[in-house]
C-alpha cells in the first residue's frame, strides 16, 4: 500500500488486497454454475477472496448464496467452472479432504457427543495425538468462552451456547477457509448484535478467512471486509460495505442495502455539464460524477434519505437538486425522524433527520410544505 | 410330529405358549402408539372417574389375559401328569378327617427337577437362545441396509416401500413359511435355479438344517427390525453427516460414528422385538428345521401334544418366561429411557 507517501508517521495500514494487483487470491471462484432442473441457483459466478478477509455473500432467500457456499464446502458439485483454494483445484475434491470447514445454520452438533467430543471430532479424523487434541479443544473452548461446558451434551445448551460450540468445532482444525451459513440467524436480536462483534474479534485473533452467508444487510455491513450482493444466482456487486452503500452499481443493490430514493430521468448537457432531468423529481439533478454518456440516455439517481436537508420553506421549484412537496407522514424512531414527503409529481420521498437535540416541539409537522436539498456528491447515477 | 391335520392346533399351541411374551412386547409398543395415547388422553380428560377408568382398563386387560393364564400355567406346572381330563392331578384338595376340614396343597417339583436333570431341556433352552441371538444379528444385518435405503429414498417412494415391507404380513405366516419349503428343498426353486445356472451340480443341503431356520426367521421377523430402524433413521438430520464429512470424516466412517449411534434406539428396539419372540418360535424350526434343530418351542409342543404331559410342558413354559424376563425387562427399561429422553 506504500505508494510514495511522505516519510514521517507511518501511514495507517489499510487492509485492501483486492485493490492490489500484486495480491494473490486465497480462493478463486471462476465461472461457477449450478442448476437444479430448470432453476439456475448459481449462474456464472466469479469471485476472488483474499487471505484474512471477512467476506459476506448477501442476498434475499433463493438468490443462490447458500448453494455457492455449499459448492465451496464440497457438498455440491458445480456443473461448470472451477474453485481454486490456495492454488489447488478444489472442484472435484470431496468435502472430507478439503482444508475448509463450515459452520452450519442449524449448527449440526452431534447430539450423542459431549461438547468436547464435538469439538475434538475433526481433530480425531486427522489422527492428532490425544494430548494435542486435549490442548486444542481447551483452547477452542476458551476462545468461545465456554471453558466449563466441555462435558455437557448439546441438548443441555442454550441457542447462543450451541452457536459457540459450532464455531469452536469449525475453527479447531484451523481451516484455510471458514464458511458460515447464516451463523447468527437463530439468535435473538440483542444476542445477534453482540455476537457480530465477537465474531469479528475471533476472526482477527485466529486470522482465518471467513466467508459468511447472510440475508441480513446490517450483519454484512457490520462484519464484512467486502460484500458480494447476489441476485438470482448472479453477483450484482462486490465491494466494501462503504462502497456498496455509497456507490451502488444498480438499483437492485441500492434498494437492497438500506433505504433509498430513486429518481428516474434522462441525461441532458447544459453548458458543458451533464445533468439529469427528472420529471419525477421535478428538477434537474447535478452529480459530482456524471456518467460519460450521450445526452438523452436514461439514468436513475439514487439519494439516501439521510443525505437530504429538509427545510420548511417554499422556494420556487426549478433549482437543481431541490425538490418540494408536502409532509405526508412522520416516523419518530428516537434517534432519527423519518419524513415521508409527497412531491408534486406524486412520488413519495423518504428523508431522515438525526434528532441531535431533544425534541420538544416539531419545527416541521404534517401537511407542511417542505423542500429537500442535496449536494451533487450525495446522488449516485445508476444505469440499471 | 406330523403337521397335516394338526396345523391349526399347532398354531394355537404356539400362540398360547407365546401369549405372555407377545402381550408384554405389545404393551410396550401399544403404550407408545399414538392412537392409544390419544384415547388414554381423551378418557383421562373426562375427569377423575375417566382417569380411574383409563388406568384400570389396561390393568384389567393384563389381569385377564396375562396374569390369569400365567397363574393357570404355573398351577399346572406343579401338578403331576395323569390319565384324566384334564390330564393332570389337582394341587388343591379338601381333606376331611372327621375332626377338622382343611385344604391340602400338593406342590410337585419333579417337573422342574426333570428340566434340570434331563440335558435335553437346557440344551433346548441354550440352543433357542443361540438361534435367537444369531438370527437377531442376521436380521439386523439384512434390516439395517434395507431401512437405511428406505429412509434415504425420495420422499414420494417411502410410503410405497414401507407398504412393501408390511404387505406380506397380511397373509398367514404359516403359508409364507410353507412357501419357503418349496424354495429351499432339494428339488426346490433355489436349487433348481442354481443348477440351471450351472453354479452347483448337486442340490445344496439347506432344507431341514439350521440354515433354513435362519432364513425363515430372518424373513418372518424382518419387519419387526426394519420398522423401528426406519423410524429412527428417517429422523436423522442429514446435516450431521455433512458436518462429519466437513470435519474430515469419510462417509463409511460417518455411518459408524454418527448414523449407527443415533439409530441405536431403533436398533435396540428392533433387536428385542426379534429376539424375544424368536426364542419361543415353534412353527419355523418345525417346518424348516430338521430333527437336529432343537428349540424350546418345539420341545414344549411335543411335551404338550405328543407326550400329553401338560405339567412338564407348563414347567417348560414357566422357565421360558423366566429366561425371557431378563430381555423383556431390559427392553421395557430401554423404552422408558427413550420416552424420558424424548421429553
Description:
The complex is a heterodimer of chains A (384) and B (343). In chain A, a hairpin with a 2-residue loop joins strand 9 (226-231) and strand 10 (234-239). Chain A is of the alpha+beta class and 384 residues long. Chain A has a six-stranded mixed beta sheet with strand order 6-7-8-3-9-10, sandwiched between helices. Chain A has a five-stranded antiparallel beta sheet with strand order 13-12-11-14-20. Helices cover 22% and strands 32% of the residues of chain A. Chain A is built from eight helices and 20 strands. Chain A has two domains: 22-253, P-loop containing nucleotide triphosphate hydrolases (Rossmann fold, 3-Layer(aba) Sandwich), CATH 3.40.50; 261-382, Nucleic acid-binding proteins (OB fold (Dihydrolipoamide Acetyltransferase, E2P), Beta Barrel). Chain A is elongated, with a radius of gyration of 25 Å. The radius of gyration of chain B is 24 Å and the shape is globular. Chain B has a domain at 109-342: MetI-like (MetI-like fold), CATH 1.10.3720.10. Chain B has a two-stranded antiparallel sheet. The longest helix of chain B has 34 residues, at 119-152. Chain B contains 14 helices and two strands; from the N terminus they run H-H-H-E-E-H-H-H-H-H-H-H-H-H-H-H. With 343 residues, chain B is mainly alpha-helical. In chain B, helix 10 (238-246) crosses helix 11 (251-279). In chain B, strand 1 (92-96) and strand 2 (101-105) form a beta hairpin. At the A-B interface, strand 6 and helix 2 of A face helix 10 and helix 11 of B.
